[in-house]
Specification:
Elements (H helix, E strand, L loop, with lengths): L27 H18 L1 H7 L6 E3 L9 E6 L11 E13 L3 E4 L18 E2 L1 E7 L5 E7 H14 L21 E3 L1
Parallel strand pairs: 4-8
Antiparallel strand pairs: 1-2, 2-3, 3-6, 4-5, 6-7
GO molecular function: peptide deformylase activity
Organism: Enterococcus xiangfangensis
Catalytic activity: N-terminal N-formyl-L-methionyl-[peptide] + H2O = N-terminal L-methionyl-[peptide] + formate
Length: 187
Amino acid sequence: MITMDDIIREGHPTLRAVAKEVPLPPTAEEVELGKEMLQFLKNSQDPVKAEELHLRGGVGLAAPQLNISKRIIAVHVPSIDPEKPENGLSTVMYNPKILSHSVQEACLGEGEGCLSVDREVPGYVVRAARITVSYFDDKGEKHKIRLKNYEAIVVQHEIDHINGIMFYDHIDEKNPLHLKDGVLVIE
């Protein structure tokens, strides 16, 4: 079981490396890793389990954050519709790639955080509001999905991790709370 002790923190060289492609189909070990990453996210969002296991809440996790330089990400974004809780985005992506993105940009009103960053980093992280992503599942089958707003931001944050990019690399150092006209702010 993955815990906070397994997650490496900023400054570790693996977080700045471009991760290696996963051969397809993924190995049994890589499939198990993906399942454990997804389970960590589910545990971190369960108030009882999170407290019991001392987990910080997370919606995404990339293999490099576990000091494993492979292109594997897990995302578990709960549905905002309480009537349809199964409609959230919950999956493991092997070799995810952004195929296209919107001109429209978006950011989270509260800024972004990261399980590998133990400090608050103020500032807007501006990303594409909509993306089309291709990825492979644990059987090596290819998928293509369109994501928008919060789900798109979460997946872009995790794909950044497999490319050696940290979220605060996107923050304008001179003016962290400045936004261009037209940027969608997601609260």
